[in-house]
Design brief:
By secondary structure, the protein is an alpha/beta fold. The chain has 2 domains: 134 residues, Alpha-Beta Complex (Aspartate Aminotransferase, domain 1), CATH 3.90.1150.10; 244 residues, Aspartate Aminotransferase, domain 2, CATH 3.40.640. The protein is 38% helix and 13% strand. Strand 5, helix 6 and strand 6 form a beta-alpha-beta unit. The protein binds pyridoxal-5'-phosphate. The site of pyridoxal-5'-phosphate has 15 residues, from helix 3.
Length: 388
């Protein structure tokens, strides 16, 4: 058996070996390390690398490459999109809309904007985590400037209907931002035909390196962001700073690989997800967080009513999974996302998130199923008094 069975792809994925090899050659002292802003030949070569990587990412998203701005990851893209668009449009109105089940990078940006005097409507999800479209229609106002709803939820895998949500935003002249950190490179995203104005993505959730992400900004009137950073003239001053050429090239290759094998990756993940769910759904007291119909199959989040998640996670080792949100693993608070879905504290606290992808094998899933069944049994024996 492997010493670690890694089933925490929603926190970060392994780097594809082809991407790792490209990174290695570009970081070599003899590689192309020049600053792409420089006008000398080495700089021009570096700029050409950036240009072709950007074309690959644009191809994956079917968008104009000029709409892409590089950032350090989806956290920064979310901050730039939301705070940047809200501030740019503040003279028109100060009403914004999002959901409490968004990633912290979105939730906490909106909370910061509330402290700046913006008025934020938090739309509660249905019990499966999805947005009820009529709630959005009722909440949107003449002074609404921005709506931010994620594509695939990082805790439950639930997929929001961004085409429908975006159509309502277009109709009401509000910008629509999508956090696509979990879906980019995994689900088809056709920006030429989707009513999306701003879209965040990050390389390390799609087999690329950590530390590089992008924000797509549509070329439409009224769609613009105020910068968060000030410095050189790079990236039309929307996000200045020397471009990390090796990371961008690696992101570009990860995007081109994702596009080339998206259908194959999806089939692989769906088969694994099916196997995993069939293996654990029969355990007494297991409930799925989210639903089976609208879920990205690479994330499976399950609760079990009488077993504590943190203990179960440790009992599963060396299978690596998450409880609640990985970003909150320092505290024992029940997941705010699962609480928003109406799960009580005990159920939310017992949640285990399995997430997997391109490099996961059938054996990994079999190991996880066995470990989950054995772990539940052992913890129930140890603490029978918690049983309902
Ligand atoms: C991982 C993640 C982020 C943060 O991305 P980083 O690149 O780590 O900053 C934001 N939103 C979602 C939905 C994510 O899954």
């Amino acid at each position: 058996m492997k010493d670690v069975v890694y089933l925490d792809y929603a926190a970060t994925t392994p780097v594809d070996p082809r991407v790792a090899e490209l990174l290695r050659t570009l970081n070599d002292p003899d590689g192309n390390f020049a600053n792409p802003s420089a006008v000398h030949i080495a700089g021009r070569r570096a700029a050409a690398i950036v240009e072709s990587a950007t074309a690959e990412i644009a191809r994956m998203l079917n968008c104009d490459p000029r709409g892409l701005v590089y950032t350090s990851g989806a956290t920064e893209s979310d901050n730039l999109a939301i705070a940047g668009a809200a501030r740019f449009r503040a003279h028109r109105g100060r009403h914004l809309i999002t959901m409490p089940t968004e990633h912290k990078a979105v939730v906490d940006t909106f909370k910061a904007l509330e402290r700046e005097g913006f008025d934020v409507t938090w739309l509660t999800p249905e019990s499966n985590g999805l947005l009820d479209i009529t709630r959005l229609e009722d909440a949107i106002r003449d002074d609404t400037q921005l709506v931010s709803i994620m594509h695939v939820n990082n805790e439950t895998g639930m997929i929001q209907d961004i085409a429908r949500i975006g159509a309502i935003c277009r109709d009401r002249d509000a910008l629509f931002h999508v956090d696509a950190a979990q879906s980019a490179g995994k689900l088809p995203i056709d920006l030429a035909n989707l009513p999306v104005d701003l879209l965040s993505l990050t390389a390390h959730k799609m087999y690329g390196p950590k530390g590089i992400g992008a924000l797509y900004i549509a070329d439409r009137p009224g769609c613009h962001v105020e910068p968060l950073l000030f410095g050189g003239g790079q990236q039309r001053r929307i996000r200045p700073g020397t471009l990390p050429v090796p990371l961008i090239a690696a992101f570009g290759l990860a995007a081109s690989l994702a596009r080339a094998q998206m259908a194959e990756d999806e089939r692989h993940v769906a088969a694994l997800g099916d196997r995993l769910w069939r293996g654990i759904r029969g355990v007494d007291g297991v409930t799925l967080n989210g639903d089976e119909q609208h879920r990205w199959p690479g994330i499976l989040n399950v609760s079990i009513h009488d077993v504590e998640g943190e203990s179960l996670m440790l009992a599963l080792e060396p299978v690596c999974v998450a409880t609640g949100s990985a970003c909150n693993s320092q505290n024992q608070e029940p997941s705010y996302v699962l609480r928003a879905l109406g799960r009580d504290d005990l159920l939310a606290q017992s949640a285990i998130r399995f997430s997997f992808g391109r490099m996961t094998t059938v054996e990994d899933i079999a190991t996880a199923v066995e470990a989950y069944r054995a772990g539940v049994k052992r913890l129930r024996r140890l603490a029978p008094e918690r049983a309902a």
